[in-house]
Amino acid sequence: AVVSTQSTGHYYITNNLSLAMEEDQDSIKISIARAAEARDKLLSNRIEEARECVACHKDHDMYAAMAYCNIGFMQAIMTFDRDNITQSLIDIDSAMQVINSNRHKDGMLGYLMSYVKNRDFTTFTELEVHAELVSIQGGF
User: Fold this and answer.
1) 130, pLDDT greater than 60
2) At 111, is the secondary structure helix, strand, or coil?
3) CA neighbor of 67 nearest in space, from 104, 85, 102, 94
4) pTM of the model
5) How large is the average pLDDT for residues 29-52?
6) Under DSSP, is residue 2 helix (H, G, I), strand (E, B) or coil?
7) Residue 30 carries which DSSP code?
8) What distance in Å separates the CA atoms of residue 2 and residue 11, rounded to the nearest whole number?
9) CA separation for the pair 131, 106 (Å, rounded)
10) Separation between Cα atoms, residue 9 and residue 110, nearest integer Å
11) Are residues 88 and 69 in contact, defined by beta-carbon separation less than 8 angstroms?
12) What gap in Å lies between CA 91 and CA 55, rounded to an integer?
């Protein structure tokens, strides 16, 4: 792909990988902003608005999935309603599936070696690093 810089007018050639990385960074920023908006609405006691903010993205966006399950979890512990608790557990499981789909895949040997030595995060994309962090948060 050929890209021009606005300030200098110079053109340079970049590969599709760097463009994909920029798109990942932009989508991560948007995802985090959307989750933060949902958090703010939740903390303002606007639970349904918070849920609506991330509901349509929860099946493909790990931050939206995590925000959605946290909203359901908060509602469940505030109400002690059995249906809310059951739905919260389903939402947590769904969120972990979305998060795990974005995690770095090392294969069986890499998975086993991660127990023996530290993981090399330099080979991860930014999206995979975020997925690892969100996965850890989801475990708590």
Assistant:
1) yes
2) helix
3) 94
4) 0.69
5) 93
6) strand
7) H
8) 7
9) 14
10) 45
11) yes
12) 11
